[in-house]
Structures are given as structure tokens and as C-alpha cells.
TrEMBL record:
Residues 3-141 form the SRR1-like domain. It comes from Nicrophorus vespilloides (Boreal carrion beetle). This is SRR1-like protein. InterPro entries: SRR1-like, SRR1L. It holds the Pfam family SRR1. Keywords: Signal.
């Protein structure tokens, strides 16, 4: 039920902005993939663990109830002033920071933690009749004037994230040798 309403919202956003939609979830079934194609969504074939680059154009990322590692990887992939091209609807970064110990954040959401002072988070008020569909969801933007406040050293610290096993976070399967 939750995914149906989240999908309905995505359809509304697609219509509102008249834009292409690329979709991926490692749990998609063949039927779900076929349904997405009927709605003119492009299916991404590979699990790149959220490491999508904006390629210097404004990109809207819709990550409802996704693990914090996906948001973290997305930030890493666009680390630098190109974050200004990212608009992210995901679990509240502020809530992630408030509800996890610093040790956990360093291991699974380091980029979320580092960028938080330089972003604007707008909480999405959930007035929907089913509270759990969009609870803790926020819009995250990265204004260029805030991003330009930090030093080049801040941006040069860009080590690719590696995570300790987590049941919510599905890693890319390695090819058989």
C-alpha cells in the first residue's frame, strides 16, 4: 500500500514537471518493471547503490523511506558545488542526525553529517490520511551561496563510502569471476 501511494506521488510529479523518470529498486519484480515501462519510466539496469551524478543539470531525486546510505552515496557522487544541481526528497537528514550516534553517522552517513550546515531542509507536512506513507520525508536543497562558504579542502575530502553490513541497504552484487 505504501509503495502505491509513493508511486502515485511520483506520477503526479512527472506530470507536473513534464520530465523523464529513471527508476531503480533492487527489489523490483518483473511485473513492477513492466508497469514502470508502461508509464514511460526508464528502468536503470544496475544497482549503483545511489551513486548517481547530476551531470551538471538540475536533477530531482525521489528516495522515499530509503536507507541513509543511499542518500549518503548520492551526496558523495555529487560532492562539491554540483550539489547545487540536486533536489532530494528523502528521509529527513536532520532526523537522521538527531536519532543516530556519531559513530553510526561516521560509518553510514558521513556525507549527510558533513553537508548538513550547508543545505536547506524543508519538512514535508504529512497531511495524508495514512501517516506512514510520507512520515519523516523532507525536501533537501543545496543553495550555491551556502556551498561557496566552505573551503576547497572541505570538498577535496571525498573518500568513497564503504559500509558495514546493514539489512536495509542492498549492495551491488559482484560479478562471478
Amino acid at each position: 500500500m505504501i509503495s502505491r501511494y509513493q508511486f502515485a506521488l511520483l506520477l503526479c510529479l512527472q506530470e507536473l514537471f513534464n520530465c523523464p523518470v529513471h527508476a531503480y529498486d533492487p527489489a523490483f519484480t518483473e511485473n513492477e518493471t513492466s508497469l514502470l515501462e508502461e508509464f514511460k519510466f526508464s528502468n536503470i539496469d544496475e544497482n549503483n547503490e545511489g551513486k548517481y551524478s547530476t551531470d551538471a543539470k538540475t536533477t530531482f531525486f525521489y528516495l522515499p523511506h530509503c536507507p541513509k546510505q543511499l542518500s549518503n552515496n548520492l551526496l558523495w557522487a555529487n560532492w562539491g558545488l554540483s550539489l547545487n544541481n540536486c533536489i532530494i526528497v528523502a528521509n529527513s537528514f536532520n532526523k537522521i542526525l538527531e536519532t543516530h550516534m556519531k559513530r553510526v553517522l561516521m560509518e553510514s552517513a558521513n556525507y549527510v553529517m558533513k553537508i548538513s550546515p550547508y543545505m536547506v531542509e524543508l519538512a514535508i507536512i504529512n497531511s495524508f490520511k495514512y501517516y506512514d506513507m510520507f512520515n519523516d520525508t523532507s525536501l533537501h536543497i543545496f543553495p550555491i551561496d551556502k556551498l561557496q562558504l566552505v573551503s576547497s579542502e572541505f570538498w577535496s575530502d571525498k573518500e568513497e563510502p564503504k559500509y558495514i553490513s546493514d539489512v536495509e541497504y542492498i549492495v551491488k552484487k559482484m560479478q562471478e569471476l
